[in-house]
Design a protein that fits this description.
alpha+beta, Helix Hairpins, binds adenosine-5'-diphosphate
């Protein structure tokens, strides 16, 4: 139940906003990128437009000049030929007179004349239409077609000032020369620093007619547009350095990794919070169990003491042994009470870091003797057999005597509490892998592997198993043991088999120098 709600709360509080934020950012990102792409495309459109416009201006200026010679000169042929020589990209001019094509250049092959006549006939409708534009002072250059073999473009325009006196002229333009000497020059001064520009011939297998970079292979152009006046020719433009696609891609990659990282961070925080909350909840539960355990632990001896004192007070108990026995019970129960209170006080002192240790060098066996001198009686009383297997007397440790004795008492208390039929406790001292050890072994109920992981936690008590369930305790004993041992730079180990018994081993650093 707790888990399910915690997951839902954590998801709603942390992950959901993060996921929503990520979705929002992604959509904003892609629309931003669309805008950038649009701006870039517009820029490319502008470049292509300016190239087309420039080509049109150049060709129009030629048409204007030819028109001028034709209208203003009585015998314009010579002047036109001279003009042709000065314009290398303009290879010839034809006139359409009495349904016949006349060439300015006399060295013309008859098939060419037939070819141009055919072009004029094919484009007849458009040519007629263009004638009417003269009324509004507009001279339109009409591309008639290209001669792919000779790379020539034919453009028709009407010379004259009105449709009535108009004369149809056809310009023959050398495409390669025009691209390389007119278009390229124009591009060089304007955009070639930042852009790759190429011209392709679509009719000839996309042949590269021109590329702005020498000795370089052109990139795969994404932006290609038709050249207005050159029906089969395309101009392609692309930014140098990083293309917008590259920029967009790398930005997208960066953003995705950033989002993934942030999401991961959120998940990590959520997991941490979840674990922390779970731990706190567990601790809170253990604490509340602890309070009820302690109350129970205190109430029972108090009730016993109360009862025995009342009985003694009434003076009805006569035999001396009986009176002694009652006093004994009262003594035992008070000792148990002070043991509980001591443990709680020790624990709170240790937890708040207020405990001070008074380290002194002590022979390890002396510590055992000290504890047993007071505890032996208790053990015998409870019907326990105590065995000791102590190491040589020279083994010494630097410890706070009172605290280590408390540790041993705690371990002995547990050995007593958690022993059933076989009441046998063994205390061993010795050296193991460079440590001095004190072992308290019992043949009691043992601890499962699963529980062994938690028994040193504060307030933790094993609640399964008959004896474990009934034995009284606060769950503080072993956590105090662990605190104290670690404060001595030592370790606490447990070897236990369920149903067979347990060995608790305190390991302390050897003190050699004495
Ligand atoms: P408690 O007050 O419950 O004895 P401890 O911290 O001393 O608290 O011990 C924690 C738990 O470890 C106990 O509840 C008990 O289940 C288990 N335990 C400790 N010592 C022994 C032992 N010698 N044999 C079996 N179980 C033990």
């Amino acid at each position: 139940m707790f888990k399910k709600y915690t997951y839902i709360i954590l998801f709603n509080a942390l992950l959901l906003p993060a996921v929503l934020f990520a979705i929002f950012e992604f959509s904003a990102l892609s629309s931003n990128e669309k805008v950038i792409q649009q701006v870039y495309n517009n820029q490319l459109e502008t470049i292509v437009f300016s190239v087309n416009q420039y080509s049109d201006d150049i060709i129009s200026s030629w048409a204007e000049k030819i028109n001028y010679f034709l209208t203003e000169y009585n015998n314009p042929a010579d002047t036109l030929r001279k003009y042709l020589k000065s314009k290398v990209q303009l290879s010839n001019v034809f006139l359409w007179k009495n349904n016949k094509v006349l060439s300015l250049d006399k060295n013309i092959q008859p098939p060419k004349i037939v070819y141009i006549e055919r072009l004029i006939k094919i484009n007849d409708k458009q040519i007629r239409k263009n004638k009417s534009y003269l009324n509004v002072n507009y001279r339109k250059n009409e591309p008639l077609g290209t001669d792919e073999a000779q790379k020539k473009l034919y453009l028709a325009f009407w010379s004259g000032v009105n449709p009535e006196s108009a004369q149809l002229c056809v310009m023959e333009i050398d495409i390669s020369k025009f691209v390389k000497e007119v278009i390229a020059v124009r591009l060089q001064v304007s955009v070639e620093k930042e852009f790759y520009v190429a011209v392709f011939n679509r009719a000839a297998n996309n042949d590269l007619v021109y590329f702005s970079e020498y000795n370089k292979t052109p990139p795969a152009f994404n932006f290609r547009k038709n050249l207005w006046l050159f029906p089969n020719y395309d101009i392609a433009v692309q930014i140098k350095k990083n293309t917008i696609e590259d920029v967009v891609k790398s930005r997208l990659l960066l953003n995705i990794s950033l989002f993934a990282f942030i999401e991961l961070l959120f998940v990590l925080v959520a997991v941490l919070i979840f674990r922390f909350t779970r731990k706190e909840m567990k601790l809170a539960k253990l604490k509340s169990e602890f309070i009820s355990n302690v109350s129970h632990e205190i109430r029972t001896p108090l009730a016993l003491i109360n009862m025995y004192i009342e009985t003694l007070d009434m003076g009805r108990i006569k035999p001396e042994e009986k009176v002694k026995e009652y006093y004994q019970v009262i003594l035992q129960e008070t000792q148990r009470l002070s043991g509980i209170v001591n443990n709680i006080l020790n624990f709170s002192k240790l937890e708040s870091g207020k405990t001070t240790f008074n380290f002194e060098i002590n022979p390890v066996n002396c510590l055992v003797d000290e504890v047993l001198s007071t505890y032996n009686f208790h053990l015998k009383n409870k019907g326990f057999v105590l065995k000791t297997e102590l190491a040589e007397d020279i083994l010494k440790v630097k410890v706070d005597k009172r605290s280590i004795c408390d540790v041993l008492v705690n371990l002995l208390d547990n050995a007593v509490k958690y022993s059933a039929e076989v009441k046998e406790i063994t205390i061993r001292t010795g050296v193991k892998s460079g440590w001095v050890y004190i072992e308290v072994a019992d043949k009691g109920i043992g601890i499962s592997k699963e529980n062994q992981r938690f028994i040193f936690d504060q307030f933790y008590r094993v609640t399964q198993g008959n004896l474990a369930h009934h034995a009284k305790g606060t769950g503080l004993g072993l956590s105090i043991v662990k605190y104290v041992v670690e404060a001595h730079n030592g370790k606490i180990e447990v070897d236990s088999t369920e149903g067979k018994g347990s060995i608790f081993r305190v390991l302390l650093p050897i003190k050699y120098d004495v």
